[in-house]
């Protein structure tokens, strides 16, 4: 017997976690309003102020661990009863996993992990614990958050492209689609796959002419509605 389930590929951004209490980056009350990207999210900043960066990510890690998945994360888990679901997230929180989603690829890394600053293959799970200057990997290099900073490669992009290309249906939830190469993943979605966007604001214009359904609602409302629609019409 073959598995006839359709594949739903979901690209998520900060907006899916907003109602859990994690700030987005570029909304008017977003994280980048209060912090300079250059000081806390670039590889250059890591060279000259490790302590400040470690403290910034310690705060983010503690906060992400203290919040709960919301109705959007939970609806995406429910979708697995009817479809093969692959989530590609730009988020560094683990709310999709904590809601129970089985296949989650983190494009920009995870707050709950640290890695060696000299050997990318040395990755350690630390949960919600802080990292201090002087905490080292087994080879003696300073540990750093396992997140992708501006100016760094995004090593998961090829895997994400393969996932996007499998989509029978694509959902794009809570992302402004202004950060590349993540934003370009939409161009790997097969032409015949319908695309649904859930976001109170329209994200950046797509550079292609195809049918896109915009659901201009918050994720906690729009995603459960969309999941019901998909189950009833495509399941
Ligand atoms: N529900 C759904 N979408 C929402 C909600 C909500 N409750 N609140 C805000 N949004 C939408 C905004 O309208 C916006 O389109 O979420 C999007 C958030 O956009 P950004 O703040 O730019 O976040 P994101 O697209 O995830 O950023 C991409 O940039 O800073 C880097 O590495 C960081 O992964 C991040 C990347």
What are the salient characteristics of this protein?
single chain; 235 residues; alpha/beta; Rossmann fold; SIR2/SIRT2 'Small Domain'; 2 domains; six-stranded parallel beta sheet; three-stranded antiparallel beta sheet; 9 strands; globular; binds adenosine-5-diphosphoribose
List the helices and strands and how they pair.
Blueprint (H helix, E strand, L loop, with lengths): L6 E6 L2 H4 L12 H4 L2 H4 L2 H6 L1 H17 L4 H8 L5 E6 L5 H5 L4 E3 L2 E8 L6 E3 L17 E5 L9 H8 L4 E5 L21 E4 L13 E4 L3 H16 L1
Parallel strand pairs: 1-2, 1-7, 2-3, 7-8, 8-9
Antiparallel strand pairs: 4-5, 4-6
Helix pairs in contact: 6-9
Bound molecules: adenosine-5-diphosphoribose (APR).
Adenosine-5-diphosphoribose binds next to α1.
Question: What features would you describe in this structure?
Answer:
31% of the residues lie in helices and 19% in strands. It is of the alpha/beta class and 235 residues long. The protein has 2 domains: 1-22 and 69-108 and 153-235, 3-Layer(aba) Sandwich (Rossmann fold); 23-66 and 112-147, SIR2/SIRT2 'Small Domain'. The mean pLDDT is 95. Residues 13-15, 18-19, 24-27, 30, 90, 108, 174-176, 178-179, 199-201, 203, 218-219 line the site of adenosine-5-diphosphoribose.
